[in-house]
Specification:
By secondary structure, this protein is mostly beta strands. Among the domains are: 28-216, Immunoglobulin-like (Sandwich), CATH 2.60.40.1190; 225-247 and 574-757, no CATH class. It is built from 3 helices and 40 strands. The chain has a 24-stranded antiparallel β-barrel. Strand 3 (62-69) and strand 4 form a beta hairpin. The longest helix has 17 residues, at 3-19.
């Protein structure tokens, strides 16, 4: 790249930073509700207790003032909290879980009770937002909005400005917009939540119970540009890793021609690791699901959300840019168009990977259309992937519906069809594919009261059904039935030390397409929350004997014995400067042998802006059954698994964030038995010995973030990853940790600037 151009690009961005201001109309967002306009605001004061869900009058008074004008929605909270009640004023990163006192504004911009947006402000002005659906919540969304907090004596205040352009919304036929709002407040040190109106997310009518309001229709249009420049410098890397440094320049943009239509685009988007994934070591036959962190794939993604009750997803955006066989690929161009109508919503999503250099880059297309009518929503979804080098095309289509038959009963269902074609050639190892099949599921939920909730679920996946080209699916070729029943006790005697409690009973039965029982699983779980905010959880699980047709990676099926598990978890009072949770558990593995383990997750709030936390865990297997691919057989290992996490978060100012994150996983595994399977699926001693193994994986990152303006940031990131492997099986935790840290696989520095015009 021409470095003079790069320097000009950066100087242009920084020049704009010095002159950028945000327009808030006549109200200054400073956390102080002192402008005259607040005197004419609509006032809401009738807050009730919803956590626990008693409906009692709120213990501490809360007043919300709301103004709507051409600039957007302005909300001010006045929270009564006397000096005798501890205030938890911790600061957290954007979109982190705010474990502190906080205020929440939820807005259904269309008043349809189908989808809404959540805006949360902590007492130290930490911000979190997300998309609320019927029984769902997604934090993978970032909007442009503003907030500030302040305190004075027995009160603390929050002030928010939510522009009309924050999210797509339908346009009404007249000059009025019908919306619905829900306000809530959390007193963190007492595990209390107050809300107006009396609505809560555990109720099936949660969104229907929101407070309706009518406001003036505002026509809003925006065009935002997000140019970026990034530089990656590799300090060290393994022999099989690209060691070249790289400079990237690209552009994202968001165009909203009106309030109900949005086009999001990206040219040469940069997905450098300023957000690191959690470290995972997976020995199972099933793929690890990884959450999305890339801005293009999280912003305005609500319409494309395709989560299913069994946690599979039709559109899994982490497939894009991942390449084939985990080879990362650049993305040339990406675009996303959404339109929200009064009764019909539509969306189109398209991405093109880089295909230069003979890579197996692909073209990805997804569409969504749904029609809303009273208590029924019907939709169609499509994903299509083309990989020219592999001569492969994969299409998945689905029709779904959701029917709210009453305030207590809801039914949702979906039927899916996949069509996969691949011509044999040298680049796909001459593997020809021509597969078509169906999958489907239906989910029934019944909530007769605040205390009781029930759900039943059934799914079928055909043998040839496949959606992992653009989706995430744990497996195909099976049927599953699942049931869930829960009782919540919301009130106890005044003399009781308990605040709330719950009992859950769940069960499932699964079998493969050959009629073999995979499992019959049951779980009984108890939770108790004390007035001191301590929490104790106890859970019991049992799994019947059954066939495991995946552990041998497509070879014979193993008939495993019944399994059992019990665990106890304790959480300390949540408002203290030092808090922790700990769990101890034990159970039986696939061979019937015992395992046991424990972890502790401490968190130390050194100051309101400096937090040190982590997790330390240990698990011992007497016989851990794994597939040994080197000799194509099963092996039982006596194993020790160690995990350690450290995280330090520091917020020197409202615009600065420093994060240190370290993760380690170590495993020692010594072979005690080697197995083949007989014709009945039972384990038989093998004459071929499997090998011991030891592994250690480490990941370390230091990240500095400076916020130039909302959605405009500078990042400086140092990352380091190490790996160690041996056939010892008895290295011990000290040696594993040391060798995993020293065995550097990658070490890099990343600098990135992204600015919103």
């Amino acid at each position: 790249m021409n470095h003079s151009y790069y320097r000009f690009f950066l100087s242009t961005i920084f020049g704009c930073c010095l002159t950028h201001t945000a327009a808030y109309g006549d109200i200054t967002i400073d956390g102080v509700l002192d402008e005259p306009e607040w005197n004419d605001a609509v006032v809401y004061t009738d807050f009730v207790t919803v956590e626990p869900l008693t409906g009692d009058v709120a213990k501490y008074a809360t007043e919300v003032r709301m103004i709507t004008n051409e600039e957007g929605i302005f909300v001010g909270f006045k929270n009564y909290q006397p000096a005798t009640v501890k205030r938890v004023n911790r600061r957290f990163a954007r979109d982190a879980q705010i474990e502190a006192d906080r205020n929440v504004v939820s807005i259904d911009f269309d008043g349809t009770a189908k989808s809404a947006y959540d805006f949360t402000v902590g007492s130290a002005n930490s911000r979190q937002d997300g998309i609320v659906g019927s029984g769902t919540y997604s934090g993978d969304w970032d909007g442009t909005w503003y907030s500030q907090t302040s305190s004075d004596g027995d009160y603390w205040f929050s002030e928010m400005h939510i522009p009309w352009t924050v999210a797509p919304m339908s346009t009404s036929s007249d000059d009025k917009r019908n919306m619905a709002v829900w306000f809530s407040r959390v007193v963190y040190n007492e595990s209390l939540r107050f809300a107006f109106p009396n609505a809560f997310y555990t109720r099936p009518t949660f969104m229907e119970d929101w407070h309706p309001i009518e406001v003036k229709q505002v026509k809003a249009s925006t065009l935002d540009w997000f140019p970026y420049a990034s530089y990656n410098h590799n300090l060290r890397s393994s022999d099989n890793t690209d060691t070249s440094d790289g400079t990237n320049v690209g552009l994202d943009f968001i165009w909203r021609p009106n309030s109900n239509t949005q086009l999001t685009g990206a040219l040469n988007p940069d997905f450098g690791q300023v957000e690191s994934d959690d470290l995972v070591v997976n020995f199972s036959a099933f793929e690890t699901f990884v959450s999305e962190k890339r801005a293009f794939f999280t912003e305005n993604q609500g319409l494309f959300n395709s989560a299913q009750p069994n946690e599979d997803v039709v559109l899994y955006t982490r497939r894009i840019g991942a390449g084939v066989d985990a080879g990362l690929l650049d993305i040339d161009v990406a675009a996303k168009l959404t339109h929200y109508g009064k009764t019909v919503d539509m969306g189109l999503f398209a991405v093109k990977e880089d295909t230069s250099g003979g890579s197996a880059g692909g073209e990805f297309v997804s569409s969504r259309i749904q029609r809303k009518a009273d208590n029924l929503t019907i939709g169609h979804r499509l994903t299509h992937v083309t990989r020219d080098l592999l001569e492969r095309e994969a299409t998945v289509q689905g029709v779904d519906f959701r029917w709210d038959s009453s305030d207590e009963v809801r039914v949702a269902a979906q039927i899916l069809h996949s069509d996969i074609h691949q011509n044999a050639n040298d680049d796909n190892d001459y593997q020809s594919v021509d597969k078509q099949d169906y999958a489907g599921w239906v989910n029934w939920s019944y909530t007769p009261s605040d205390e009781w909730s029930h759900a039943l679920y059934y799914s079928h996946y055909g043998d040839e059904f496949e959606m992992n080209d653009m989706g995430y699916m744990r497996r195909n070729g099976y049927d599953e039935f699942y049931g869930y029943h829960r009782y919540d006790q919301r009130k106890y005697d005044q003399q009781s030390s308990l605040l709330s409690g719950s009992t859950e009973f769940a069960y499932s039965y699964g079998e493969n397409s050959e009629g073999q029982r995979l499992n019959f699983w049951t779980e009984l779980k108890f939770d108790w929350v004390f007035k001191s905010t301590r929490k104790i959880s106890v859970d019991f699980e049992s799994t019947s004997s059954g066939w495991d047709d995946r552990i041998t990676r497509g070879n014979e099926s193993y008939f495993r014995p019944a399994k059992y598990n019990v665990g106890v978890r304790y959480e300390s009072p949540r408002g203290n400067d030092f808090v922790f949770s700990a769990k101890a558990y034990t159970g039986t593995e696939d061979t019937g042998e015992l395992y046991y383990g424990a972890f502790i997750r401490p968190q130390l709030y050194l100051t309101e802006t400096l937090t040190l936390g982590g997790r330390v865990g240990f698990k011992k297997y007497r016989e851990w059954l794994l597939w040994d691919s080197e000799v194509s057989q099963l092996a039982g290992y006596e194993a020790h698994r160690y995990t350690g996490d450290i995280r330090l978060d520091w917020y020197p100012s409202n615009r600065q964030e420093v994060r240190l994150k370290f993760q380690w996983i170590g495993v020692d595994a010594e072979v005690i038995n080697s197995y083949q399977l007989d014709n009945s699926g039972n384990l038989q001693t093998s004459g071929t010995e499997s090998s011991n193994f030891s592994i250690s994986d480490t990941a370390f990152q230091i990240r500095y973030r400076f916020q130039l303006a909302p959605l405009s940031d500078i990042f400086l990131v140092y990352s380091r990853g190490g790996f160690f492997g041996s056939d010892s099986g008895n290295e011990g935790p000290d040696m594993l940790f040391d060798e995993g840290w020293k065995g550097v696989q990658v070490e890099s520095l990343i600098a990135k600037v992204r600015y919103r015009f």
